[in-house]
Amino acid sequence: METDRDDGRSPSQLRPLSCARNVLHRAHGSASWSQGDTKVLAAVYGPKAGTKKNENPEKACIEVIWKPKTGQIGKLEKEFEMILKRTLQSICILTLNPNTTTSIIVQVVNDDGALLVCAINAACAALVDAGIPMKHLAVAICCCLAEGGYVILDPTKLEEQKMRGFAYLVFPNTVVSVLPEGSSHVEGEPMEHGIITSVTHGVMSVEEYLKCLERGRAASTKLSDFLRRSLQSQLPSDSSKAA
């Protein structure tokens, strides 16, 4: 049985969104992204000449550095780094700047739930701000499975503690905004029903995962519209807010 939540939202309702670009003037690109009280800053440096560790004569390298709000980076943050790196590698065009490294610094400002997806959304906006070539934009959403078997989206920290399963999903932005007119494929793959990243924690059945996928894909439309409006702003330092 689905029910309204402590903050009054329906199970599928997202928290208020906020995005601002060009917030750090020493970075090549930067963005802040907020969902409710969760806020993340992302800064992009590069592309710069590849180091010996990252040298690749055919492709550019993506480096992700996660900085917690306080304390040292732990096991969970290292996992977030890897998920973020793999996601960004899949959406950036790495062949245009071979033998270079682009660094993305993720700074957690406040964590009130759905932290990883906020970081992914912030990093994507920062890459656009830096002018890094990308195959397509991407939006991330967190779907949670409650003990009763129902799905809620964009959980707060308190809600996360009560859930038995999580699905972190990253979808391509709407096809129309990122592909040439008349095209519905990226490198031969149809994108309109695609998924870029899918990570699950906890316990859920295949049926429950598919339910999360359905809810997440539906919510990604609103996120895509918001991201596109934010990035189309004529002034890169303008911020946009969703009601």
Overall mean pLDDT = 84
Query: Main β-sheet: number of strands, strand sense, barrel status?
Result: 6 strands, mixed
- Strand element count: 12
Low-confidence segments, given as residue ranges, are: 175-192, 234-243
Kindly provide the radius of gyration, computed on alpha-carbon positions and rounded to a whole number of angstroms: 18 Å
- Proportion of strand residues: 25-35%
Q: By helix and strand content, what is the structural category?
A: alpha+beta
Give me the strand/helix succession. Answer: EEEEHEHEEHEHEEEHE
The number of helical segments is 5
Oligomer: single chain
What share of residues is helical? Answer: 25-40%
The order of strands across the largest sheet is 4-5-3-2-1-12
Cα(first) to Cα(last) distance is 27 Å
> What global shape is seen?
globular
